[in-house]
Each structure stands twice: as C-alpha cells, then as structure tokens.
C-alpha cells in the first residue's frame, strides 16, 4: 500500500514564514495527486516535507501506514524528480539512471535489468550510451524520470518537472507522464503552478493559496463546483466571468440584478441550494459564469442581458468575444465597465461594437458570498432550508404534527424558516418526502434532493442511487435544527462549548518528583486544560510567543463533575427544555453555552462543570479566526 496521509501539517520556516497551514489529505494508493496554486503558496514546501527534505513543524505524515516524520528521506521509499533535473554530464545515460543503484551496491545483473526496463518504459533504449549533452530537453527529462523509476519507489514526487521545456514538448511530456503513471501503477504527487497541467494529469487536485488548502477534488468537480471565488478564477482558461449582483425571489422566479441595473429572470429551481436570505434582493453576491456557458440569444428577452463587443480574438477552432455590459454604454453615464469573455464557435460573424444578447446556462451559474467569497450553492450542501408551521400549540413539519417544544411556546401561529444540518437527517420513518433530483457526488455517494414544497428542498446523501419520484423516509435530529427567523430570537442548542480564553505556562514539579518542568495550559475563568506536546508545538509554531498575549476563543467539551478542583466558573441562566432533552444554559465569560443535563438527576443549582478530556480543546485566534489547535 502506498497511501500518503497528511494530518494537520504545518510548516513555519525559521525566519517565521508560514509556508503551509493545516494541510490535511488522504492520498490513496495509485492516485495521481496534483498540488497547484500560484507561486509561493506552499506547494513545493509540502512536497519537500513528504520527501523528508524539509522538517515538519507540526502534524503527522504517514507513508504506507507508517509515521515517517522523523524517517530519513532515503528510508521513505519515495523518489523525487525536480524541475532542475541535474544529470551528471560526464556519465552516460545508462550510468546516470544506474547511479542510485550502484551506490546501494545492487548487483550488476539486477542493475542492468532495472535500467533496461526503465529505458523501455520511457522509450530511450537506443540512447543509453549517449551523454546528456547529446540529448534533447525532453529526452533528458526522461532520463531524470528513469533515475526515479529504477528505485522502484512506493511514491513518486515530481516538482514542476516540465517547466524547463518548451510548450510543445510540455504537452507531449504531460501525456507521457500520465501514461507512465498508468504503467507503474503507483502513487504520484505532482507539483505545478500550471492549472492546465493539473487539470489534464491529476485524478484529484489540491488547490492552494497562501499556505492554505482551498479545495481538494477531481478536475471535473473543481471546474464545475469551485468552493470559492479563488478556485473558480484559478481553474479554467479563459477565466470565469464575475459580476456583482443581487438576487430577488418572487414566487418561482429569481431576478438577478447586475450593477448597471440590467435584469435577468431565471427559475427558482436553479437556486434551490441557496440560503433563502441571499434571495432578498438586497444582499450582494458575486455571480460567476464561464465563457463557455454563455450563449448568444437572437433577441432581447427576460433571461438575457445586453453587452457591446469591444474586441474579438479568433483562435481558429473557436472565437473569444470580449464585451462590456451594455445597458448604459450608449449613454454618457456608464455605471460599470464589467468586461465579459464569451466563447463562441469559429463561424461566428459578429463585429466589434455589435450589441449582443447574453444568456447564461443556469446549470453552470456560480454564486459566491460577496464578503467571504465562499460558494453559497455548494455541490454537496451541508444544510437545507425547510418550512415549519406553528399552529394552536403544535408544530407541523413535513406534514406531520408534533408537540410544540416548551422552548417555543411563546411562538405565535405562523410559518417559520428552519435550517437543517445535513448530518441531522438520519435513517428513520418519522417523515417522508419525494425525491425530486439525484446527483452523483463521488463513487458510492449520491446527493438526494427531497421536495418539501415548491420553495423548500431538503438535501441528504445516499450510498445508493435513488430514482427521482421515489418516496424517502427519514428522521430529523430536531435538537440540531436552527430557527433562522431572526425576529423571534429562538436560540438553537449550540453543541460546541466555547468561551474566551488564553494560554499560560506554569512551572510544575515533574510527575516523577525529579525537578521541575514547564507545562502549557489553555485557560478559561478558574479552570485550566493541559495541552498535549503536539498541541503545544503547533501553538508555538503558528503563534510564536504571541500566544501568551493574543486573544483566543477556546472550544472544548464539558462534563458534570462531583469534585471541586478545576471547575469552570459559570453563571447559570436556567434550564432549557427542547423536545426530549434538557439543557442547562450557562454563561462562561461573555459566551452562552448549553450543558446537556437530560440524564442528570440532582439539583440543578449544585451542578459543577469541568473539562471533558475525551473532547479535545480547540483554539481560534480571535483576531483572524484561524484555527490554531
Ligand atoms: P510554491 O512551491 O507554491 O511556489 P514554496 O513552498 O516554495 O511555494 O514557498 C512557500 C512560502 O514559503 C513562500 O512564501 C516562500 O517565500 C517561503 N519559503 C520557501 N522556502 C523558504 C525557506 N527556505 N526559508 C524561508 N521561507 C521560505
């Protein structure tokens, strides 16, 4: 097995440069993984940590199931091919390829066999007696690959191996490396800044930016379902078009209003994954559409906008039209100059200054939150939006009448919007809805869309393909449901216990009584949580000595305890009953939290709480909300 697993990997260089932050991936045996991103985003550093050429600041690295953080590069069963392949000029191709085997004292027959086999795979058998300078760039790159192949590694690491080659040779070598991967049937990890290389070679791609992984997905999913605006803009040429818009839902129509006030009306059906509050006609969003998903309409219509062609690029097989949103173009007061690229067939006869009518293929419209730049229509939504009716002291959800929980007794009769996390939709037979759409997410995982009514759809996943029209039964973990109606102010039960906190160091006697040691704690009012060595290392790697002065939000588990030491100081705000469960509402510092007291039998006033050490402590830097541990 040649799985490569990165668990919360960080790299901070001695000069303080944070090159890689919280990198997590499980690379499966025989995968071709590509790390892609702009220069300086941490791709090479990650690869070099896998190779063992760079220390890992924090986190665990497993190759073939073994923890290899402290294993020497030569013992990691990997082979690396660099951009600068540095062949020995005085040696023949044969000797260059054989070099690593010779220094390992592999016997001569075995060396011959392996070099010939590698040369055959790479199609360089007839050049084995040549010197590198007698070969072309592409051939030399093949020799470099040959040096890696003869070592028979579990994992191939390739760092921009093609960037020294010209465009034509690069395209050729791209397909050769893909074929090589198939032939060798082993794990490849490939670094490039070129998204075309990434898209054509990777079985999965890791898109990175400024040390952070943005998205890990198949080329098709990255292209069609980018997680944020950065990925959307980075993948695909020409680049995706972006517009500032608002969306207004009116019945089954959604009107998209562009900055220049032009409007495009589309069916609500295209926006069912979207949180309804984005469809209020006021909230700004970024709409993304690729040049190949815009078509030219014959005439103006409800679902078209106008633009004026400013430039035309004929590429032979297709043509690119550059245009500007047109509404105000003919008047003096052009509000926006949003430039659009449209891909049209080579036969297109439009001229510069022509007014064109653009229609967007609604299946490929992307929407991003204007501030966070995250998609608001994720491929596999983590929550759904349903409608809940409160009537005569009862609540009606999915056509079932249920008792109204005590906590909502003050609700007036009416209809409320609720948010249901995907994880709260569980097997059961309490509710039943009809499946309206099914989409494959990955092997053995299907996204199932259930229709509550024409305005609300519930998303869940299934390991088997479900046919549209089928009735699906399920339960909802109602304590996880969030009442998104702001005015009624109904609080959901928060499952994460959080408070403001800080980090402290304390000199303590060692457990064995021999001298003292420095111990690090996360601290909340009155109580301390001892950090593990790994957590301490990570805290220092990321925050340095600022960890003692920065403000943090600590998240942790709590439990009800009998003893009186290390108790978390809190204010009791009363008991909160929710369906079959009871919670004690408490304030720690400035934050409100809930302690599940369903099975607690004693007097509520006597409740003492402390850390639940089975639930780890997490810490977020309050200034930038980055998860530190
Ligand atoms: P990429 O491969 O994506 O171009 P790198 O992994 O080489 O990026 O670099 C990531 C970041 O780490 C960059 O900001 C770079 O300047 C920094 N960096 C790389 N190597 C070192 C080093 N040896 N010392 C300090 N900073 C470094």
UniProtKB/TrEMBL annotation:
Keyword Protein biosynthesis in record: no
One MF annotation (Gene Ontology) recorded for this entry: ATP binding
Classification via InterPro entries: AAA+_ATPase, ABC_transporter-like_ATP-bd, ABC_transporter-like_CS, ABC_transpr_MalK-like, ABC_transpr_MalK/UgpC-like, Mo/tungstate-bd_C_term_dom, NA-bd_OB-fold, P-loop_NTPase
Annotated GO biological process: carbohydrate transport
Domain ABC transporter: from-to ranges: 4-235
Keywords from the UniProt entry: ATP-binding, Nucleotide-binding, Transport
Entry superkingdom: Bacteria
SUPFAM superfamilies the record matches: MOP-like, P-loop containing nucleoside triphosphate hydrolases
UniProt GO cellular component terms: ATP-binding cassette (ABC) transporter complex, substrate-binding subunit-containing
Protein name: Sn-glycerol-3-phosphate ABC transporter ATP-binding protein UgpC
Species: Candidatus Scatoplasma merdavium
Lineage, opening ranks: Bacteria, Bacillati, Bacillota, Bacilli, Bacillales
């Amino acid at each position: 097995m040649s799985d490569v697993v990165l668990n919360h990997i960080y790299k901070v260089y001695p000069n303080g440069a944070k090159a890689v932050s919280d990198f997590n991936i499980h690379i499966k045996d025989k995968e071709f993984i590509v790390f892609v991103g702009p220069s300086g985003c941490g791709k090479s550093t990650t690869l070099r940590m896998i190779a063992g050429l760079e220390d890992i600041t924090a986190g665990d690295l497993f190759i073939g199931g073994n923890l290899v953080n402290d294993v020497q590069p030569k013992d990691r069963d990997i082979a690396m091919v660099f951009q600068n392949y540095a062949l020995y000029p005085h040696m023949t191709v044969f000797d260059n390829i054989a070099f690593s085997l010779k220094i390992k004292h592999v016997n001569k027959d075995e060396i011959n066999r392996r070099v010939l086999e590698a040369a055959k795979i790479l199609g360089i058998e007839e050049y084995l007696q040549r010197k590198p300078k007698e070969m072309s760039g592409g051939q030399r790159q093949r020799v470099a690959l040959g040096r890696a192949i003869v070592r028979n590694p579990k994992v191939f690491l390739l760092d921009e191996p093609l960037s020294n080659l010209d465009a034509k040779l690069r395209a050729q070598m791209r397909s050769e490396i893909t074929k090589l991967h198939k032939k060798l049937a082993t794990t490849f990890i490939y670094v490039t800044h070129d998204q075309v290389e990434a898209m054509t070679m990777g079985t999965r791609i890791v898109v990175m930016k400024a040390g952070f992984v943005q998205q890990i997905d198949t080329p098709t999913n990255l292209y069609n379902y980018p997680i944020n605006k950065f990925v959307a803009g980075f993948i695909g040429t020409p680049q995706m078009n972006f517009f500032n818009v608002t969306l207004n839902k009116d019945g089954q129509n959604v009107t998209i209003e562009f900055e220049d006030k032009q409007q495009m009306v589309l069916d609500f059906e295209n926006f069912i994954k979207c949180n309804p509050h984005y469809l209020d006609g006021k909230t700004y969003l970024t709409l993304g559409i690729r040049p190949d998903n815009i078509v030219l309409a014959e005439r103006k219509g409800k679902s078209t906008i106008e633009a004026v062609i400013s430039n035309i690029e004929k590429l032979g097989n297709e043509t690119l039209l550059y245009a500007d949103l047109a509404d105000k173009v003919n008047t003096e007061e052009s509000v926006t100059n949003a430039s659009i690229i449209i891909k049209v067939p080579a036969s297109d006869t439009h001229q510069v200054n022509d007014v064109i009518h653009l229609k967007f293929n609604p299946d490929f419209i992307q929407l991003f939150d204007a501030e966070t730049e995250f998609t608001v229509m994720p491929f596999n939504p983590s929550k759904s939006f349903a409608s809940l009716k409160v009537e005569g002291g009862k609540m009606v959800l999915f056509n079932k009448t249920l008792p109204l929980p005590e906590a909502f007794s003050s609700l007036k009769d009416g209809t409320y919007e609720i948010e249901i996390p995907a994880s709260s939709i569980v097997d059961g037979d309490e509710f039943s809805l009809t499946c309206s759409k099914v989409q494959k997410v990955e092997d053995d995982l299907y996204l199932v869309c259930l229709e509550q009514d024409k305005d609300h759809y519930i998303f869940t996943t299934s390991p088997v393909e479900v046919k549209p029209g089928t009735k699906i039964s399920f339960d909802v973990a109602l304590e996880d449901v969030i009442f998104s109606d702001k005015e009624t102010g109904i609080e959901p039960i928060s499952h994460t216990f959080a408070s403001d906190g800080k980090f402290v160091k304390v000199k303590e006697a060692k457990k064995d009584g021999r001298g003292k040691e420095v111990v690090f704690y996360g601290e909340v009012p009155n109580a301390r949580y001892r950090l593990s060595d790994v957590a301490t290392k990570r805290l220092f790697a990321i925050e340095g000595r600022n960890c003692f002065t920065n403000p943090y939000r600590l998240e942790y588990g709590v439990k009800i305890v009998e003893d009186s030491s290390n108790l978390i100081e809190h204010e009791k705000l009363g008991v909160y009953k929710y369906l079959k469960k009871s919670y004690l509402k408490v304030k720690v510092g400035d934050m409100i939290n809930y302690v599940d007291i369903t099975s607690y039998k004693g007097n509520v006033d006597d409740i003492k709480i402390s850390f639940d050490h089975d639930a780890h402590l997490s810490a977020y830097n309050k200034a930038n909300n980055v998860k530190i541990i």
